Amino acid sequence: MKKLSISLISAALLNACANPNALTDKAAFDPLTATDSRLGPQALPVGECGLFLWGQSEGRPLQFFQNTSTKQVVIPFRPGSKVTRQSTAQPIADGFFAEQRFSVDDLVMDITLRVEAGRNVLKGIAVPAGRIVLGETSGRETVVPVVGLFGCRN
């Protein structure tokens, strides 16, 4: 039952923002009822590094992209909103951290990752487990389990 609940929450979050009005009405954002939230392919230019996080739901949609060279963050909900990194902890590589906190409008987004040891940025550092926690000012939180990869393009 626990896996089913997490899967349902993940699927709902990954499908956020079907209502075009929700993009302008911050109070309308509800990751549990929204219907389209997946990122398309994200470019990683030569010489730059990035973090890709995929949801653990069916189809493994891209949930989060961070170009650590340019500090650009792309998320599938609240398009056009500024994503600002507030804090980091547990550095793994230059610009890559096991823990990060971001603000997105009135949301707080905490990312916690477990990385695979023994790899480097050129071969890619696997993220076999992690989570994105979206916190609202009301105190409500949505947890999205993720997997990912951090690497640099030569």
Summarize the structure.
This protein has 154 residues and is mainly β. 8% of the residues lie in helices and 44% in strands. The relative contact order is 0.19.
Descriptive terms for the model:
154 residues, mainly beta, eight-stranded antiparallel sheet, disordered N terminus
Summarize the SSE layout with pairings.
Blueprint: H1 2-14, E1 49-55, E2 62-67, E3 72-74, E4 83-93, E5 96-104, E6 107-114, E7 125-135, E8 141-152
Antiparallel strand pairs: 1-2, 1-8, 2-3, 4-5, 5-6, 6-7, 7-8
Largest sheet: 8 strands, antiparallel
Strand order of the largest sheet: 3-2-1-8-7-6-5-4
Order of helices and strands: HEEEEEEEE
CA gyration radius, whole angstroms: 15 Å
Q: Could you tell me the mean pLDDT? A: 78
What is the count of DSSP helices, taking H or I runs of 4+ residues? 1
What does the model show?
By secondary structure, this protein is mainly β. It has one domain (37-152). It is 8% helix and 44% strand. It contains one helix and eight strands. The chain has one helix at 2-14, and strands at residues 49-55, 62-67, 72-74, 83-93, 96-104, 107-114, 125-135, 141-152. An eight-stranded antiparallel sheet has the order 3-2-1-8-7-6-5-4. The longest helix has 13 residues, at 2-14. The radius of gyration is 15 Å and the shape is globular. Residues 1-30 have low confidence and may be disordered.
